[in-house]
């Protein structure tokens, strides 16, 4: 049985998600210890429980340690099934992060996977659902990944209540050399729920102003709704580069728009082919792809280093890392 130290490197939930996904995909039994050891509340949170439960259901796995705040899980998978599955995180736990645990394994499922997931779509410390749809999914589609994600309703912290439907097809991944955008065409979505309509509009207006001052035009749509939970956010993107920000009580809408725009501009100005967040998310897919795959990114984050380490425990692959003005990551 392969043992993974959950306190390694970044020491967060990413280690668990990647390890469970690759265990399911390779059929290797795994024990993950010291789960989320570096977090204020170590161990499994609700979103991690539901992610492991879902992958367990997909693989008829034998699992132990699957309780709230558990710091050790053993996972012994069988074959990967498709079919329909309903998942309720039960909180505003991140739906995009839960999908990170499921999606790599689904590449080798026996059939198409249909998911209906309830939880948080736009929450702090996680990619937004629009980032997943408009940055992450198009990036892995270039590698041959076939999936569609639909947002039925958004869910914000603390109530959640979001609903996302995903259809994931078994896929054979191929290596890709990611390149910087040839043309900077910035798009975005500014959204709010149970708030005055001007909140989402002000977020978008502020983001456009920052981008215009930097010499860029942006097409940003505005969505206002009356979902179960109250909140707002904005996501901006240009090819494989994105920036997002979440509204909070007491934070002006203008500040939310500024944060997203400035985050995007930092990445665009670097000349990298992918942003720093996408870099770590692509590591498992690059490892699974046939042939060589490469990206450049602004910096080598602890998240990316950690994901490389986890992947290399499961798969016979090696990543070359060259740190110059940009960081180049190449999977041989």
What would you note in describing this structure?
The chain is α+β, with helices and mostly antiparallel strands. It folds into 2 domains: 2-178 and 274-331, RNA 3'-terminal phosphate cyclase domain (UDP-n-acetylglucosamine1-carboxyvinyl-transferase, Chain, Alpha-beta prism), CATH 3.65.10.20; 186-270, RNA 3'-terminal phosphate cyclase, insert domain (Dihydrodipicolinate Reductase, domain 2, 2-Layer Sandwich). The chain has helices at residues 13-26, 46-59, 95-106, 129-141, 198-213, 253-270, 276-288, 302-314; strands at residues 2-5, 30-33, 62-64, 73-76, 83-88, 113-119, 146-153, 162-169, 186-193, 218-225, 231-238, 241-246, 293-297, 319-323, 327-331. Strands 1-2-4-3 form a 4-stranded mixed beta sheet, covered by helices on one side. Strand 7 (146-153) and strand 8 form a beta hairpin. The longest helix has 18 residues, at 253-270. It is globular, with a radius of gyration of 19 Å.
Tell me the major beta sheet: 4 strands, mixed
Distance separating the two termini: 26 Å
- Could you give me the name of the CATH homologous superfamily of the largest domain? RNA 3'-terminal phosphate cyclase domain
The fraction of residues assigned to DSSP E strands is 25-35%
pLDDT average, as an integer?
A: 95
Please provide the ordered H/E string of secondary-structure elements: EHEHEEEHEHEEEHEEEHHEHEE
């Amino acid at each position: 049985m392969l043992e993974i130290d959950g306190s390694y490197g970044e020491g967060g939930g990413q280690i668990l998600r990647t390890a469970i996904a690759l265990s399911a995909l390779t059929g290797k039994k795994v024990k993950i210890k010291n789960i989320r050891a570096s977090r204020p509340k170590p161990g499994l949170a609700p979103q991690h429980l539901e992610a492991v439960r879902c992958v367990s259901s997909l693989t008829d796995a034998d699992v132990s340690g699957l309780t709230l705040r558990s710091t050790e899980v053993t996972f012994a998978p069988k074959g990967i099934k498709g079919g329909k599955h309903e998942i309720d995180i039960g909180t505003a736990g991140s739906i995009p992060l839960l999908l990170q645990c499921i999606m790599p394994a689904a590449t080798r499922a026996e059939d198409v996977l249909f998911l209906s997931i309830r939880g948080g779509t736009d929450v702090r410390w996680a990619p937004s659902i629009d980032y997943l749809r408009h940055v992450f999914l198009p990036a892995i589609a270039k590698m041959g990944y076939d999936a569609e994600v639909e947002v039925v309703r958004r869910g914000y912290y603390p109530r959640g209540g979001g609903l996302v439907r995903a259809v994931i097809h078994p896929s054979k991944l191929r290596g890709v050399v990611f390149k910087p955008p040839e043309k900077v065409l910035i798009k975005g979505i500014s959204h709010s729920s149970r708030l005055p309509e001007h909140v989402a509009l002000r977020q978008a207006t502020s983001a456009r102003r920052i981008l215009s001052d930097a010499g860029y035009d942006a097409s940003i749509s505005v969505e206002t709704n009356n979902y179960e939970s109250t909140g707002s956010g904005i996501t901006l993107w240009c090819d494989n580069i994105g920036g997002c920000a979440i509204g909070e009580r007491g934070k002006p809408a203008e500040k939310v728009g500024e944060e997203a725009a400035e985050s995007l501009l930092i990445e665009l100005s670097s000349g990298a082919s992918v942003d720093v967040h996408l870099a770590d998310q692509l590591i498992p897919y690059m490892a699974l792809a046939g042939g060589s795959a490469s990206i450049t990114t602004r910096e080598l984050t602890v998240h990316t280093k950690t994901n490389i380490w986890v992947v290399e425990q499961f798969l016979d692959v090696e990543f070359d890392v060259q740190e110059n003005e940009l960081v180049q990551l190449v999977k041989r």
